[in-house]
Write a structure and sequence with these properties.
Largest sheet: 4 strands, antiparallel
CATH class: Alpha Beta
Number of strands: 4
CATH architecture: 2-Layer Sandwich
Strand content: 15-25%
Number of domains: 1
CATH topology: Muramoyl-pentapeptide Carboxypeptidase, domain 2
Order of helices and strands: HHHHEEHHEE
Shape: globular
Strand order of the largest sheet: 1-2-4-3
Length: 161
């Protein structure tokens, strides 16, 4: 048996998770077409963020609110290989992403022309679910998008009573 470090184990699981998502999508697309694959993928991304958010909340001291969302969501982004910076205060969180591994995968696989369509559906679905997991008063809004040719993705989460 190969002796692996914690980093190697983590890299193995991260790469497998990323690969299975892309392979699954491509196989569904081959059989049913792009639009059907994207709609099924949207359904998956309505559930996966709930699992991720709830797991990270259980591992932290945060349950709800913009601070909890900030702590858990930025942890998720880091684990997924995003490069980003944050801005915000008590009632708002702004995340500026300058490297998105999902968009980079689309570019590397010569599917950059589909990246914006996938991003429009999947990112808006996923990040709206993340917001809802930290309270019904947190709203999600997208600004600039790498997949649209912008220099960054801009994600805004705001809390209102």
């Amino acid at each position: 048996m190969i002796k692996l470090t914690e980093k190697q184990i983590s890299d193995y699981f991260h790469r497998s998770y990323s690969a299975v998502d892309g392979l699954w999508f491509m196989k569904v697309e081959e059989k049913y077409g792009f639009d059907t694959a994207l709609e099924i993928d949207r359904e998956v991304w309505k559930v996966l963020p709930k699992i991720q958010a709830r797991l990270l909340k259980s591992m932290s001291q945060f349950d709800t609110g913009i601070v909890g969302l900030f702590e858990c969501f930025t942890t998720k982004l880091k684990l997924d290989g995003f490069e980003f910076r944050t801005e915000g205060g008590m009632n708002e969180l702004k995340i500026i992403i300058n490297k998105c591994p999902w968009h980079e995968t689309m570019v590397k696989s010569n599917r950059e022309d589909l990246s914006e369509k996938v991003g429009d559906v999947i990112c808006s679905t996923e990040y709206t679910v993340w917001a809802s997991e930290f309270g019904g008063n947190i709203q999600f809004e997208r600004g600039d998008r790498l997949c649209r040719g912008d220099s960054n993705c801009v994600l805004r989460f705001s809390y209102s009573e």
